[in-house]
Amino acid sequence: MQVLETFLDAMGNTPLVRLTKVTRGVRPAVLAKLEMLNPGGSVKDRIGIRMIQAAEREGLLKPGGTIVEPTSGNTGHGLAIAAAIRGYRCIFVMPDKMSQEKISLLRAYGAEVVITPTAVPPESPESYYRVAERLAAEIPGAFQPNQYFNAENPAAHYATTGPEIWEQTEGTVDVFVAGIGTGGTISGVGHYLREQNPDVMIVGADPEGSVYSGDEPRPYLVEGIGEDFWPETFDPSVVDRYVKVSDKDSFRMARAVTRQEGILVGGSCGTAVVAALQVARELDDPSKTIVVLLPDSGRSYLSKIYSDTWMLQHGMLDRPDSIRVEEVLGAKGGGLPSLITVDAHDKVRQAVDTLQAHGISQAPVVREGEGRDVSRFVGSIRDRELLERIFRDPDALQADVAEVMAPPVPMVEWDDAIEVAFSALELAPAALVSKEGQVLGVVTRSDLLEFLAHRRRQS
């Protein structure tokens, strides 16, 4: 019988597929290495088990131990599968820009997930690197594989990914393109291919805002590639050239590959394909073969790059010729002021009087000062939460609003598509409308419902 002993035995030997639709007009062959077909859905499966096995051999990880790792999600999935099979506890530390799907998937394997801020330097005690280090030091029996400094990372690709590409192309590969995160994939594969043929070109696809291609580090939205420091697992000498790719181009290409090639891919796959196509156009030689590594599936990004609303909110899609938020705001009846606010230093009793006087159920809270600058809007109050607080503690009527307020009301731009307002109103009963840093007014679920109903009657 052809039976695998464990799920891990299904790792590797991922296929090469020729891209034919997004490559129209490009003369070299562009072949995609589909790493999403590994057990955990990404190229990172290849390094997870090797790092664990090496730690076991060296006595760094013992039965009942805990694996702690900073990860953008995919390495965690590979480690979580291996840990589930071998009986280890897992704690993964992730930056807050990662998709909810990645977090949920890690928790599905029984792992614990700690979220840290993205927009902090790597040396900050709040960065996901430092938080993981602290947890590994504090937890008895904990081991941090540390994919950024673990030699098993590039070694895994030298031993598996590189030979697979060489064999699958029968040694005809001319260019290898991959995104650079820890640098393990491009370093391991690059070294192997160069040993077989010194003329193979190695191309690093890098997001804007990453240090690899020379940018000053700054936040970007593509997940899993690019860095704000230089990991030990990356050998820059193996890379012949870098191609810098924007978030917008990465996400649009990922959607194009999915819709035209039928391969559901993540954002970093889009980055790599954009880079591969740029190199292919420059080579303009039908005898050349380019292999581009697609590291993961798009299933972890359905709420982001495959959501038109999310893409619109982040400026990744051209705005359609649809209804704008300003039209909803302008269609509101004239019975109320355009904006009713409560001061943070008002007493709760005054806030209740304001709500009742205008017949409204919520209002934004502003700090002291004049004008409608967005920086003044610091919170919100809602009658439901106030009722619960006052019912349990009547003295709360004398408290400052700042002590009982909820988070700020969501904010949308006046020229946003109506889909953006709808998305905000799914999460909150009202949204502020701003223009050039100034709040114009507020739209509520009722406003949007009335606008849509009126528009439908007119049509």
Describe the structure.
- With 459 residues, the chain is of the alpha/beta class.
- It has three domains: 8-39 and 168-301, 3-Layer(aba) Sandwich (Rossmann fold), CATH 3.40.50.1100; 45-143, Rossmann fold (3-Layer(aba) Sandwich); 325-458, CBS-domain (Roll).
- The chain is 37% helix and 17% strand.
- The protein is built from 15 helices and 16 strands.
- It has helices at residues 45-57, 74-86, 100-108, 128-138, 152-168, 184-196, 247-261, 267-283, 308-313, 325-330, 348-358, 383-392, 401-404, 418-427, 445-458, and strands at 16-18, 29-34, 66-70, 89-95, 112-116, 142-143, 175-179, 201-207, 241-245, 289-294, 342-343, 362-366, 377-382, 411-413, 430-435, 438-444.
- Helix 14 links the parallel strand 14 (411-413) and strand 15 (430-435).
- Helix 1 (45-57) crosses helix 5 and helix 5 (152-168) crosses helix 6 (184-196).
- It is globular and about 80 Å long.
Sequence stretches where pLDDT stays below 50 over 5 or more residues: none
Structural shape: globular
CATH class of the largest domain: Alpha Beta
Rg for CA atoms? 26 Å
Mean pLDDT equals 90
The number of helices is 15
User: Which structural class best describes the helix and strand composition?
Assistant: alpha/beta
Number of strands: 16
The span between the termini is 65 Å
Structurally, how many domains make up the residues?
3
Could you tell me the CATH topology label of the largest domain.
Answer: Rossmann fold
How much strand content do the residues show?
15-25%
Largest sheet: 6 strands, mixed
Give me the side-by-side strand order of the main sheet: 1-2-10-7-8-9
CATH architecture of the largest domain: 3-Layer(aba) Sandwich
Helix content: 25-40%
